[in-house]
Design a protein that fits this description.
Strand content of chain A: under 5%
Order of helices and strands of chain A: HHHHHHHHH
CATH class of chain A: Mainly Alpha
Largest sheet of chain A: none
Number of strands of chain A: 0
Oligomer: homodimer
Shape of chain A: elongated
Structural class of chain A: mainly alpha
Chain lengths: ~200, ~200
């Protein structure tokens, strides 16, 4: 019954990846080991190696899955808003909700991965850099559209706004994760409006 | 000659700690191992264990040293400024210079440590939390003084300002470390003035 076994393999793979994302969000992608996952999932190491081949492939799969979660929680809820300021505000809103939520036990996956690989070379560095660069591009596009729509002042610098939003979210992650400070959520909302000079 | 040997031991200890800070800034405090340091410094593992006793003590010593570097590079250059806005701006200036500089090969030590320990318990979590809380307290004090001096508007929320400054610096660290984007330095300076509503 090859069909059933392919479906089962997909379920197994998905459960390995889901656990890998959880582990990596706390201990980092470098903290992912096949032995540890095998223990956590009560599987054999051979069963995991059979699915992924190597630790590097497993790390890549975890990063892909984290991207997909981010896309689903942050981009999709905003995707149907009209381009420009409205969509930008919707993105910031779902971004803040995503960080305040429980998607990853260790907090913002991308912040952690960015810190982990900023001074390390290799394929994961490139994948993290590419993912974050694409996200910055998405934000920049909305800021530019908002300027074209005259929803933001003509002298707004899109790169400045993107830079400030990115830092804001990292600060929110720190306040929530390290200090458990939920007041950071309304502060982050307010800071978005300050960055966009809406208040 | 017990005196000479104590001095020698202090030099050895300092060189171990200096290397530990470098390693931890790239690979994290969890990435510090006695074996790795022994290799890097061409010492025996027993020589390092003799100085620190345990990996946890070595991690603590590295974190203490990173605090001292931060204090020397960020706080001290601003300490003689008059309290309030002037000192706050001097702190932000030296903070940005510190991050743009070469103190740590892996970028902001505290950002890395904060990410590393935010979802992990234990004594290092407490030490990182305490260090960052103290720093937030220092910033808050200067903001409050600036409000009392009428250098900042009376309705300024010190916690909001501290929250935004902290995130800004994390964003600067990401832009510099992950993207090698030096334009982030003037952007960070500009963002400080925007956060303080000075422009």
């Amino acid at each position: 019954m090859p069909r059933r076994s392919a479906a089962e393999a997909a379920v197994t793979r998905a459960s390995i990846v889901a656990r890998a994302v959880e582990v990596a969000s706390v201990d980092g992608l470098e903290g992912l080991t096949i032995g540890r996952l095998a223990d956590d999932l009560d599987m054999s190491k051979a069963g995991i190696v059979g699915q992924f081949g190597s630790k590097a492939n497993l790390q890549r799969a975890a990063l892909d899955e984290a991207s997909e979660i981010f896309r689903r929680e942050v981009w999709l809820p905003a995707a149907n808003e009209p381009p420009g300021l409205q969509r930008l505000l919707a993105i910031c809103d779902s971004w803040i909700r995503h960080l305040a939520g429980t998607a990853f036990p260790g907090g913002c996956f991308w912040t952690s991965a960015s810190i982990e690989y900023d001074a390390r070379g290799g394929p994961l560095h490139a994948q993290v850099q590419q993912g974050l660069r694409r996200w910055r591009g998405t934000l920049r596009r909305e800021v530019k559209t908002a300027i074209e729509n005259r929803e933001l002042p003509a002298d707004t610098d899109p790169d400045q706004v993107v830079f400030e939003l990115q830092g804001l979210v990292m600060g929110l992650n720190q306040a929530l994760q390290l200090f458990g400070d939920r007041r950071a959520v309304p502060r982050a909302r307010r800071a978005v409006r300050r960055i966009l000079e809406l208040e």
